[in-house]
Design brief:
two-stranded antiparallel ribbon, 4 helices, single chain, alpha+beta, 23% helix, globular
């Protein structure tokens, strides 16, 4: 059930200019700096999984970058505690978004899945200590299976900048963490 904070942020980030400012001011992603607001389009965030269980994501925008789209996935949960499984939850939501795009024929002409920029708000006073990557939640695979693991599951990217920030204001966790 959404909290009052969730509802306020959902209303706030229903505006493309604020979504662009969120991304450009609080993450290391700068490719949207010069993108016109007309390239931003809010999309339906409700998906149904293969087992017919309904899921409601918070906010999903797609941004036209030339001939392609970037999906900006904003999970708004101003929670005061670290969620150890947030990386898994985000992976699930992104998977449901991808399934919806495949089923709705929303792919590019070359039938490739678009990139997604996942963002999560965190408002706790201890620094965010949960993994930002699904790989951080998995036990190490035996050597003969390591090469067969999905590249999404291998920890091969650096930690997000600003991960050690603390305070009571909402911060981003996921693709980037802002102090």
């Amino acid at each position: 059930m959404p909290t009052p904070h969730d509802l306020g942020y959902r209303a706030l980030f229903a505006h493309p200019e604020l979504v662009r400012e969120l991304i450009t001011d609080f993450t290391s992603v700068k490719l949207l700096d010069e993108i016109p607001l007309s390239a931003f389009e809010q999309v339906n965030p409700a998906y149904v999984s293969e087992h017919l269980s309904a899921r409601q994501d918070d906010i999903v925008w797609r941004v036209r970058l030339g001939d392609e789209f970037l999906y900006v996935y904003i999970l708004i949960e101003c929670q005061s505690g670290v969620d150890r499984w947030m990386a898994l939850r985000m992976q699930t939501y992104i998977g449901l978004l991808y399934q919806d795009l495949v089923k709705g024929h929303g792919l590019s002409p070359d039938l490739l899945l678009p990139p997604v920029l996942p963002l999560v708000f965190y408002n706790g006073s201890p620094r965010w200590s949960a993994s930002l990557d699904l790989a951080g939640l998995l036990m190490q695979a035996p050597a003969e299976l390591a090469a067969l693991q999905s590249s999404q599951l291998r920890a091969d990217r650096p930690a997000a900048p600003g991960q050690d920030g603390a305070g009571s204001e909402c911060r981003l966790a996921g693709a980037a963490v802002a102090a």
